[in-house]
Structures are given as C-alpha cells and as structure tokens.
Amino acid sequence: MMLELQERVTELENWKDGKGLIIYGAGNTFCSGSDLNAVKAISNSQDGMNMCMFMQNTLTRLMRLPLISVALVQGKAVGGGAELTTACDFRLMTPGSEIRFVHKHMGLVPGWGGAARLVRIVGSGAALQLLSGAARVDPERALRLGLSEETLASSDETGALEEAHAWLSQYTEGPASVIRAVKKVVTAGRELPLEAALRTEKDIFGTVWGGPANLQALVRRPKHK
C-alpha cells in the first residue's frame, strides 16, 4: 500500500489540469493502517525509521499537491489510516465511521506526520487527548473538534462518493489555474514564515493576473451578491 500510494502521488503531481481529489477506501474501510505482518518484518529501529521517513515524505507531498483534497472516511480510519486523513485538506465522514489514533496501544507514536498535522487541525489540547486516549472519534465528535467538515447522509460507498463529489465541487468550480493557485497560496501561508509566504503569494498572483480566467471575468463583469 505504501509504494502504491507513493506512485499515485507521483501521478497526481504530474496531473497539470487537476483541481480536486477524493481519497476513499474499499469494502467500507477507509484504511486500517500498517499491515502487522509487514511491521513485524521491519521491527528493528533503522528499518522503522526508514519507513517513517518514506511515509512522511509521501504524505507531505500529498498535502502539498495543488489540488483540494478530501478524505472520505467510511468505516474505520485507524493508526496510519488516521494519519492519512490529516494529510488531506478536508475530511468527510459517513454515519457509523470512526477515526482513531491507536498508536499508543502499539507502543508507538504517530510517525507519518500525523501528530504534527493533527495539532494544526484541532489544536494541541485536543490532539493530546486523541493521541494519549486512543479514543474512537465518531462523526459527531469529529465535527465538534473540527476534524471533520460534515457527516454525509449516505453510508453506502456509491452514495457517499456522490455526496463527496457534490461537496467538493463547491470549492473546485472554476478554472483549474485559479483553483490550483488558491491551494498554493494557502499552502504557503500555512508552511512558510510570513515574509516568505508573502513573496510566494505575490509570485502566484502574478501568474493569474492578466491570465485567461482574469480577462474572461473582466469581460463578464460579474456582480458579487
């Protein structure tokens, strides 16, 4: 799964016209984390560190894609699966689903960047509770914490995916160049010091000012209600 995820991220980095991405699992399970047999095979410290760095790199690249990403959580997102949800911009949950950081019960802490991202999503206090308590986070609690944006009405895979597409479309409507630019300036604002983020925002602004979408909008003279 780790190698396949890395390959998909590489493909998405080369998808120049993309605007949005929905990550979801199969068989009513979002992702149950690392395969225990694989974990046993790499139980020494150095191999564990190599896996940690590999997944941190993959999920950081996923997070930085110029696409608006949604984790559609059906069933369980456990351990590494919970960490994967934090690498997406948004999380949508279906009835009966759960996100759970079970690392403590494995004698571990998150190693794929999940703890650092979780702190930025829900704050340090809530993150400490979720990691030290290893509690099941149902859709209602996820909404309260700001870990989830919405609980979908449908539990079946097809219906939930249609709902997720409709939800995401409100943010991906418009030219790809503009949507991708929006994601880039937000990423810069989140990750860079202020002065560097301002320079990046200026540079990205320059790529869309006077561009096709900007010129077409000026012709249309849209009225903002």
Describe the structure.
- The mean pLDDT is 93.
- The protein is an alpha/beta fold.
- It has helices spanning 2-13, 36-41, 45-63, 80-86, 114-122, 124-133, 139-145, 157-172, 176-191, 194-208, 212-220, and strands spanning 20-24, 68-73, 76-78, 90-93, 98-100, 150-151.
- The protein starts with a helix and ends in a 5-residue tail after the last helix.
- Helix content is 56%, strand content 10%.
Quick rundown:
By secondary structure, this protein is α/β, with parallel strands linked by helices.
The major beta sheet can be summarized as:
4 strands, parallel
Fraction in beta strands: 5-15%
Question: What global shape is seen?
Answer: globular
Mean pLDDT level: 93
Instruction: Compute the separation of the termini in Å.
Output: 46 Å
Measured as a percent range, the helix fraction is: 55-70%
- From N to C, what is the helix and strand string? HEHHEEHEEHHHEHHHH
Overall radius of gyration: 19 Å
Poorly predicted regions are none
Major sheet strand order: 1-2-4-6
Structural class by helix and strand composition: alpha/beta
**Total number of strands:** 6
Count of helical stretches: 11
